[in-house]
């Protein structure tokens, strides 16, 4: 049975995390859970000498899984959570050229005090840590991880003396990893074709791969064509843009028009585009820019 306090805590964590991921427009799926009291007790009793008040503690009373559409979003999603919460530990496996194996990307964050104080189970069991676990996956690898966890990790004895099949299962993961990058390359190629045909809405949508399905305003399209700005927008570095949105705490609705105004403000510097930008959007951008620069100066002193 689940405690209402624990459910409110995981719901609060989910809201805080999703608000930040949505702010920069990432495409993702989100799963969260809290362990029941019986599940915690079962985990403790399974290895009674493993967890204690003064030693190693159970760190996954609360768990989050973030499933990204594209592999290059793993880093920005991790950076997003690192800004929100204090890192307790992380396990990020390095890939190797000659080994087929799943790579872990798991973080343990400190639970904000305002939330940990509300937990009934944390007060009741001293061997539970005031932390929560976050797993990062890509959408293609997620299904493989589910199969591997339930049918190999939990049933290790079934795989004894079957290393060839275990390697084959890892090989399937390797093919999914290749497909992850293949899909990303496909959208890069599509964005280039959109650029060559001057399809600016499609180019931005497929280059940036963010949660937006609208179309550019005709005034913006006219300026891009008349001032030959298409190549400049095409050459904007996606990772740099997303990092800027995160670091500057840019908080504007994510749509194609606003992305144009954002890119223009920080990178392109077209007076024609600036002149048609909504006053509220420009104020949010200038305020974010000034605040970031002020904080940078203060941090350097």
From TrEMBL:
Residues 32-159 form the RelA/SpoT domain. It comes from the Bacteria. One of its GO terms (biological process) is guanosine tetraphosphate metabolic process. Pfam families: RelA_SpoT. Signal peptide: none annotated. PANTHER family: GTP PYROPHOSPHATASE-RELATED, RELA_SPOT DOMAIN-CONTAINING PROTEIN. This is RelA/SpoT domain-containing protein. The lineage of its organism: Bacteria, Pseudomonadati, Pseudomonadota, Gammaproteobacteria, Enterobacterales.
């Amino acid at each position: 049975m689940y405690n209402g306090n624990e459910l409110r805590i995981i719901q609060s964590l989910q809201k805080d995390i999703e608000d930040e991921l949505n702010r920069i427009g990432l495409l993702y799926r989100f799963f969260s859970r809290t362990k029941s009291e019986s599940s915690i007790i079962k985990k403790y009793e399974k290895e009674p000498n493993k967890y204690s008040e003064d030693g190693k503690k159970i760190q996954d009373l609360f768990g989050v899984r973030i499933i990204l559409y594209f592999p290059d979003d793993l880093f920005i999603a991790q950076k997003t959570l690192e800004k929100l919460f204090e890192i307790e530990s992380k396990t990020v496996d390095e890939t190797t050229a000659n080994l087929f194996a799943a790579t872990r990307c798991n973080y343990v964050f400190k639970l904000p005090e305002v939330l940990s104080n509300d937990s009934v189970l944390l007060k009741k069991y001293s061997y539970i840590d005031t932390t929560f676990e976050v797993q990062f996956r890509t959408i293609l690898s997620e299904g493989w991880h589910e199969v591997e966890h339930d049918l190999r990790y939990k049933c290790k004895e079934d795989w004894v003396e079957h290393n060839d099949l275990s390697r084959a299962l890892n090989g399937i993961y390797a093919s999914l990893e290749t497909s992850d990058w293949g899909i990303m390359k496909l959208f890069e190629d599509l964005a280039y074709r959109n650029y060559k045909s001057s399809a600016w809405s499609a180019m931005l949508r497929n280059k940036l791969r963010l949660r937006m399905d609208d179309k550019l305003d005709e005034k913006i399209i006219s300026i891009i064509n008349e001032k030959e700005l298409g190549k400049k927008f095409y050459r904007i570095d996606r990772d740099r843009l997303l990092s800027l949105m995160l670091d500057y705490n840019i908080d504007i609705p994510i749509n194609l028009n606003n992305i144009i105004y954002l890119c223009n403000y920080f990178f392109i510097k077209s007076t024609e585009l600036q002149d048609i930008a909504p006053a509220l959007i420009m104020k949010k951008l200038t305020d974010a820019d000034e605040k970031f620069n002020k904080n940078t100066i203060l941090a350097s002193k």
